[in-house]
Please model this.
Amino acid sequence: MSVKKEASGRRSVQAEVVVPGTPEEVWQAIATGPGVSSWFVPTEFEESDGRPVAVTPNFGPGMVPRSAVTAWDPPRMFAALGEGWGGSPPIAAETVARETPRWQAWIHECFPMPSETSRSE
Model:
């Protein structure tokens, strides 16, 4: 996983993992509470009218960030925007599942969102 820095100054981190499975199986693993909890940390998806509105991973005491789901396109992509940690700007994340010739690729990209309170370099 590397840090990308765009000409605009925006930085992001992207991880891509290729896993076996159908698009639906990969989607269940990356876009549901039980799926994410099975391989990462305990995670809950809040729903309203049958659609996710927030995702909350539990990294341990004092580390339970809640992020609003900002895009939902199953079984391909979802995005969320959450509060920054330790004075950082808000963090946006986009998770994508795409079909490759033999497997499913899962791409997760995180980047800070500009804010008036963000620190300058």
